[in-house]
Amino acid sequence: MRNQSSITFLTACVALLHAAAVPGADMSGGLAGGGPAVTPTNGDCIPDAQRAAVRQQIEAFLASPKGKIAKASQGPAPTNTQSYSFYPQAGALWQDLFPVNFVDLDSTAGLRDWFCTNYTYNGHNGHDSDILTWTQKDIGVPVFAALDGLVIAAHDGENDTNTVAAGQPANYVVLSHGNGHETWYYHFKKFSVAVGVGQNVRAGQQIGLTASSGNSTGPHLHFETRVSNVVYEPFAGACRSGASLWTGQIPFRTNFYLRDFTLCTNSLASYPGPPVDSPRNGYQLTGLQPVQFWINQHNMPPNTSWRVRFLRPNGTVRYDSGTVVRANPFYRWSWWSWNYTINFDVTGTWKVELNQNNGQLVAQMPFEIVSSTALMTNRPPHPVVVGFDPPFPTPTNVVFCRVLNFTLTDDPDYDLVRYRYEWRVNSNTVRIITNAALSDAIPHHTAQAGDTLTCTVTPSDGVTDGPSATVSTEFIPVLHVRRSHENAIITWPLWATNFNLQGATNLTSSNHWSNVGVATNEVNGTKSVSWPLTSLTNFFRLRR
After folding, report:
1. If you count Cβ atoms within 10 Å of the first and of the last residue's Cβ in the chain, which end, N or C, has fewer?
2. In the chain, which residues fall in CATH 2.70.50.60?
């Protein structure tokens, strides 16, 4: 996982990238600090000694009477290694979650990930997906079971704010999915482990919260797949042949983009960068005033230029830094901060504009200039748009409720937005959680055939709520009929276990519906019956 950039690097960086001369003696500023992520050169999130201790814990449990009973309760082991239908962390990969490291597929001292890049470190055995700040960690970012499984190891109670990887013990959960398939989840928040050894869990069930316990330098999830106690890379690509273990593998993101933009009025000259958060503010007074911002960005090209402009409410330019060229290599993960003093000569909605890569507009962020601090009132987050994933779920799916309109300007005051997810099945609330992620999830079969599933999301800055948004769907099974010779083949979803096939001879008011007592076939997720066309029963329906 990443470390903070060194002071030596920052000093050199600031010297190289000092801002160009600016118009007006009363206005000044430029780049204040920043740098890339620094990953370990050797080892793993789970040191060898700790991994061996966890393996001993697993073997001791499985050999115990309780372990034998629990393993038997899992039922028959699957014949193949099961696929993952979702990434087991709240949020969205390549948006509020960033996959910092993948499995190192090079058995030598070299580095190679599944995409044939070096986005890993030597000996790394899993996926590291980070969240940006300690504030998000404190609010909570859930981790879910990737598959149905049995808890075969777990530990809690360790410090969760580590910034130096020194072999510290971690909070973790290990699940067994049968056929030698295990998933390991590491670095959980202290006292967040929500399952115990010997417990059966369902895919999509929350098992902990993201943090930085153990051998870690910042808040992230270490998600690891093992088959027969050998590390397995679920992503498939040019350097990992074969089928993907993801049912819908997320494309690798290579374009340059900003993940976060934070505006404030406090000096960032000594700001160490994420995961440390900073004050946030979307207001400033008229006159000569300080204004600062910091960004987190990904896939930054070599020799990236930057240019900052401050625009008045009417769009005219109040300040232009000019273009400054950096002498940087490619940075997959980096943060940067700027400090300015600007003479704000009119009230209204101003914008700070950041251009990079020879004129590419990467951010145009609004803020308010007012004449009095009495006008600096807290404003709620902007409205959200939400949807289900998958868009048309069935009871067999782990269902995610996702915030779909991810933007850099989710709150006018630049406050960190958290989301209250309320899940209902019909009129019953089945889960309520406030987290700092762009999604939440519920296990499969939380809702059954015939139920209505609803998710209501309310954004908040911790003080004021924004408007709620709701998505809803009905799990209504549909009959399909096709002719095959002298029979009608009637099919419906296998997940409609609480529905019966009924038949009738006509649709008049005196019609009598009755259950069709014929043998059904089950194949490819459907039930089917073959019904003779000569029968007097010509109408069919599904009813609970």
Report:
1. C
2. 18-28+255-375
CATH fold of 18-28+255-375 reads Coagulation Factor XIII; Chain A, domain 1 (2.70.50)
CA distance 232 to 255: 27
Of 132, 133, 136, 104, the closest CA to residue 117 belongs to 104
The CATH 2.60.40.10 domain(s) of the chain lie at: 386-474
pLDDT tens for 403-442 read 999 999 999 999 999 999 999 999 999 999 999 999 999 9
Q: Tell me which of 2.70.70.10, 3.30.70.980, 3.30.479.30, 3.90.190.10 is the CATH number of domain 48-232.
A: 2.70.70.10
The structure tokens listed for 309 are: 């402009």
What is the third-level CATH fold of 386-474?
A: Immunoglobulin-like (2.60.40)
Q: What 3-state class would DSSP assign to 15?
A: helix
- pLDDT (tens digit, 9 = 90+) per residue, 473-502? 999 888 888 888 888 888 988 888 888 888
Do the beta carbons of residue 247 and residue 85 sit within 8 Å?
A: yes
**Token representation of residue 283:** 């207001």
Measured distance CA(171)–CA(106) in Å, rounded: 28
- CATH code 2.70.70.10 region(s) in the chain: 48-232
The pair of structure tokens assigned to 249 is: 């593998």
Residue 418: enclosing H or E segment and its boundaries? strand 418-425
CA distance 321 to 342: 11
Name residue 523's beta-bridge partners: 526
**Phi then psi dihedrals of residue 58, to 5 deg:** -65, -50
Q: How far apart are CA 487 and CA 329, in angstroms?
A: 69
pTM for the whole thing? 0.90
**In sequence order, what DSSP letters do the residues of 133-195 get, joined into one string?**
-HHHHHH--EEE-SSSEEEEEEE-----B--S-S-----EEEEE-STTEEEEEE-BPTT----
